[in-house]
Amino acid sequence: MLGIPLTFLNFLGGAIALGFGFGAQTLCSNLISGVIILIARPYRVGDIIEVNGQAGTVLAVGMRATEVLTYDGVNLVVPNASFLANTIVNRTNYERALRGLVTITAAYSADSRRVDELLRTTAAAHPAVINKPGRAPWVIFDNFGSNGLEFKLYFWVDTTRGSVAATASEIRHNVLTVFRAEGLAIPLTPHILNRPPAT
User: Fold this and answer.
1) 168 and 104 in a common domain
2) pLDDT band at residue 37 using 50, 70 and 90 as cut-offs
3) Which of 29, 37, 55, 73 is 20 to 30 A (C-alpha) from 45?
4) Is 30 helix (H, G, I), strand (E, B) or coil?
5) Pairing of β 97-106 and β 89-90
6) What is the pLDDT of residues 111-125, one digit of tens each?
């Protein structure tokens, strides 16, 4: 009627039907995956997860997709089928706890056991740090460093009360205050300046 070949119309109709077919298949796959995720609950809102090399905090879990806020502040809307087709790393356990680490160097003149005690009690006093059997802060006397005794302070953070980064920062402030009150020195790394000879 309009000068359009019938074969072209048939091809166009087939392409549209095929497109709808693939679209419906993808939609159904995402919806089914959403139901499985809502039942199995491999992650929940607030969990820190990693999938396809992208890590962030779960903001919302829907029937079709999951919304994730990355560490760079980017909102990702990830189709639910992607979570079932790929390995999910859930970095938040069901206690809403993540492990933190602070490294500290004390002067060689310091009592190593006293440093160990001060680090543990300082971390345990923080309101976001979990302090119960099996989760209490612990210290590793890690090494005899080039300029002091090196310690690693490990602790579990209740992520409903604070982030690991903020908690670690506050613990560093508190450790510095306690060390100064105890007369313990944190050694400085020496810097050697090579000056060219005067001409």
Assistant:
1) yes
2) low
3) 29
4) helix
5) unpaired
6) 999 999 999 999 999
Is residue 56 located within the same domain as residue 118? no
Domain region containing 127: 97-182
Contact call for residues 84 and 32 (beta carbons, < 8 A): no
Express as a percent the part of the chain with pLDDT over 90. 40
Output the furthest CA–CA distance in the chain (Å, rounded). 98
List the strands of the sheet with 138-144, edge to edge: 97-106, 149-158, 138-144
Residue 166, C-beta contacts closer than 8 angstroms, at least 6 positions apart: 128
Residue count of the chain, please give it. Answer: 199
**Structure tokens of 193?**
């300046």
Instruction: Provide, for the chain, the percentages of residues in helix, strand and coil under a 3-state DSSP scheme, each rounded to the nearest 5.
Output: 35, 25, 35
Q: What is the residue type of 30?
A: N
C-beta of residue 149 within 8 angstroms of C-beta of residue 139: no
- State the average pLDDT over residues 153-162: 92
Residue 196 lies in a domain: no
- Helix or strand run (H / E) with residue 48: strand 48-51
Q: Which of 30, 65, 90 is the endpoint of a domain?
A: 90
